[in-house]
């Protein structure tokens, strides 16, 4: 008996009727699939094939459908969803995982994803042709989708690899042009034919839109312990045995953690599994950690929503690898300040190519001369006969070249004092809770001799700002505080035309007060104690 004639093995999903009604249904309601068969062709060891089809209700309203696995396959469970008159997408992934336990045997994984639901089943199959059936059932009837493939002992198809997975230019002055390169290679067999394009067209529905923060450190391509890239050195703190995998942070086991400071109302993490059983947990601020749902993407990558519905403003995100191992690529922060750049600000060279085993390079030229100060995001897409890679591009244009002196404005809310040299770039919902109290003092520009950066932190629980010329915060405990970056440079010695910036502290409330008034603006009568001098500011 041939593989194709095995009725029992060919029936992949059993018939299961929906158990609960879904409101009033039209008599003509029926489940509809956009395809009857998906042919993945030849699939060799380590290769993955993907397909997508649509499922719908032929009448108005919605009906519920259900998928269950045949006992011939391991794993499974139940996958269910809703089908309406507007078709919804269902993704099917077939993977030949590796050489099997015996000659000619191959472990195969089929993954079916609909919405946020995923059904994964595995089975060891012999080399040769196979035709399996996916049976979708509803209370208005069922439909079958056949999955056809041929297992081979050798790699059979090209596989697109593109690095880096994101371009994060950080905070940049409006220079004329910035250039980056994308490496394009083929990790599979045959000839890879690829094309490069720019713009957000083709971005998957539901993909995170916002500022991309890359964890990739180009200087660590050769490996070694991981350290954040220069653009993220103040925003990322790594603890545990993190290694560098082609410049990306790779967890060395359970206990690896990252603390990431970001601006926005939510965040989405992208990365790759190193082990199948990888488990990540995330928390924001003092929230208890929760396990992340790792949604599978093309190329063995995943996407996970780590935070959503946050108030606009700075936040501290904690990521913990509690099981297995992962490689993390970057964070997309949902930031209301993000806008789209002008058309054609990105130029790509070349726009297409072919590769077998060699590496091709796409030059990305980004013109900044016409960009006004602000945060911009875009996308470069590499499409091919071996998959598609979408590479986010983010940049924050800071305005004119850094001045020698910075004007710092004072904002107040009760006894809390917010200092900022760029009120126009603060999140409106963050600074909007404060009243502008006028000019506070002036700070020095970056690189001025005898100065150090003046850093800002904020504790949203008690409504308190803290300032220090030390990145660690000095000897203060900053638990519960969110790092807000540097607002300028403060003199560490008395320079001409300067005066002291004083710090006061209330041990009962845990709040601080900063002022150039030697008398503390009367805060001593309100339970505050004098703690000394932060540094020297310009009058």
Helix coverage percent of residues? Answer: under 10%
- Under the CATH scheme, the architecture of the largest domain is Sandwich
Strand proportion? over 45%
Q: C-alpha Rg, in Å?
A: 28 Å
Spatial separation of the terminal alpha carbons = 92 Å
Instruction: Give the strand line-up of the largest sheet.
Output: 1-3-7-8-9-5
**Averaging pLDDT over every residue, what do you get?**
85
For this structure, what is the CATH homologous superfamily of the largest domain?
Answer: Galactose-binding domain-like
Q: CATH class of the largest domain, anyone?
A: Mainly Beta
Parts with pLDDT < 50 across at least 5 consecutive residues: 1-27, 202-208
Number of structurally distinct domains: 3
Question: Which secondary-structure class do the elements indicate?
Answer: mainly beta
Biggest sheet overview: 6 strands, antiparallel
Overall body shape: elongated
Give the tally of β-strands.
42
Stated plainly, the CATH topology of the largest domain is called Jelly Rolls
Question: Which tags fit this structure?
Answer:
elongated, disordered N terminus, 539 residues, mainly beta, 6-stranded antiparallel beta sheet, 6-stranded mixed beta sheet, Jelly Rolls
């Amino acid at each position: 008996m041939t593989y194709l004639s095995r009725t029992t093995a060919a029936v992949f999903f059993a018939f299961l009727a929906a158990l609960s009604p879904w409101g009033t249904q039209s008599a003509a309601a029926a489940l509809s699939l956009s395809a009857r068969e998906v042919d993945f062709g030849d699939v060799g060891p380590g290769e993955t094939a993907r397909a997508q089809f649509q499922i719908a209700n032929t009448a108005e309203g919605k009906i519920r459908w259900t998928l269950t696995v045949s006992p011939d396959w391991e794993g499974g469970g139940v996958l269910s969803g809703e089908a309406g008159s507007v078709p919804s997408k269902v993704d099917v992934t077939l993977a030949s995982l590796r050489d099997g336990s015996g000659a000619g045997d191959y472990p195969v994984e089929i993954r079916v994803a609909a919405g946020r639901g995923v059904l994964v089943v595995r089975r060891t199959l012999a080399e040769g042709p196979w035709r399996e059936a996916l049976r979708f059932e509803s209370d208005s009837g069922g439909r079958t989708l056949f999955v056809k493939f041929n297992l081979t002992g050798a790699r059979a198809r090209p596989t697109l690899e593109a690095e880096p997975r994101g371009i994060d230019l950080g905070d940049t002055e409006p220079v004329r042009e910035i250039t980056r390169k994308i490496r394009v290679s083929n990790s599979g067999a045959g000839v890879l034919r690829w094309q490069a394009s720019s713009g957000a067209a083709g971005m998957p529905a539901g993909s995170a839109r916002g500022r991309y923060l890359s964890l990739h450190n180009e200087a660590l391509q050769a490996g070694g312990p991981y350290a954040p890239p220069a653009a993220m050195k103040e925003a990322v703190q790594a603890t545990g045995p993190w290694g560098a995998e082609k410049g990306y942070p790779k967890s060395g086991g359970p206990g690896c953690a990252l603390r990431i400071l970001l601006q926005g109302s939510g965040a989405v993490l992208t990365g790759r599994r190193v082990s199948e059983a990888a488990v990540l947990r995330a928390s924001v601020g003092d929230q208890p950690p929760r396990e992340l749902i790792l949604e599978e993407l093309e190329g063995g990558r995943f996407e996970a929503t780590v935070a959503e519905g946050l108030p606009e403003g700075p936040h501290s995100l904690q990521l913990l690898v509690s099981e297995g191992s992962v490689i993390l690529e970057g964070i997309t922060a949902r930031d209301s300040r993000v806008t789209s750049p002008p058309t054609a600000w990105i130029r790509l060279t070349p726009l297409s190519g072919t590769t077998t085993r060699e590496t091709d390079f796409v030059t990305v030229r980004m013109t900044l001369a016409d960009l006004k100060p602000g945060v911009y995001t875009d996308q470069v897409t590499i499409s091919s006969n071996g998959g598609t890679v979408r590479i986010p591009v983010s940049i924050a244009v800071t305005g004119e070249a850094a001045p020698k002196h910075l004007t710092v404005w004072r904002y107040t809310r009760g006894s809390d004092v917010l200092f900022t040299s760029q009120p126009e770039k603060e999140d409106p919902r963050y600074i909007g809770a404060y009243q502008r109290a006028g000019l506070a003092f002036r700070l020095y520009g970056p690189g001025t001799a005898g100065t150090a950066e003046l850093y800002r932190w904020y504790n949203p629980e008690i409504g308190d700002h803290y300032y220090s010329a030390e990145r660690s915060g000095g000897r203060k405990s900053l638990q519960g505080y969110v790092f807000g970056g540097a607002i300028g440079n403060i003199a560490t010695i008395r320079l001409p035309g300067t005066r002291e910036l004083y710090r006061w502290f209330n041990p009962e409330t845990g709040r601080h007060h900063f002022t150039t008034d030697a008398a503390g603006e009367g805060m001593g009568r309100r339970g505050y104690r004098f703690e000394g001098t932060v540094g020297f500011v310009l009058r």
